[in-house]
Amino acid sequence: MTKRKRYSAELKAKVALEAIREELTAAELAKKYDIHPTMITGWKRTAIENMASVFGSKKAAEPTISGQEVEMLHAKIDQLVVKTGFFVRSLQAHSQSSAGNHPWPSNRGPPNMNT
């Protein structure tokens, strides 16, 4: 089973722009870029439909985060750090206490159950 090809936004824009220019047919572009002509036509249509939004909308401002949200996030980070430390210490204590309690020698691994 073959995997679908994923095309980058840059390639789609480049091919769509060439299709809009109409210097080459969709079939010629398809051969040039090894892409199905239907995809090229779709990219061209999408580019034309969304072209007005490029000029119409202003750049969105970065979202602002209040001081309260920052404090809440720091508290959550501290909570997760404490939990992680607890689990790490518990795992270390468990591995040290059970280091010699394996039913088989550590250099051999578990017994082969298939024999």
Describe the structure.
This is Transposase. Residues 92-115 are annotated as: Disordered. InterPro entries: Transposase_8, Trp_repressor/repl_initiator, WH-like_DNA-bd_sf. Among the domains are: 9-51; 69-97. The protein is an all-alpha fold. It has helices spanning 9-21, 26-33, 37-56, 67-97. It starts with 8 loop residues before the first helix and ends in an 18-residue tail after the last helix. The chain is elongated and about 75 Å long. It contains four helices and no strands. The mean pLDDT is 82.
Q: What fraction of residues sit in β-strands?
A: under 5%
Please mark out the parts with pLDDT under 50 across 5 or more consecutive residues, or reply none. none
Radius of gyration: 29 Å
What coarse outline follows from CA principal-axis ratios?
Answer: elongated
Order of helices and strands: HHHH
Helix/strand/pairing category: mainly alpha
Count of helices? 4
| Amount of helix | 55-70%
End-to-end distance:
36 Å
Nearest-integer average pLDDT: 82
Say how many strands there are. Answer: 0
Note the main sheet: none
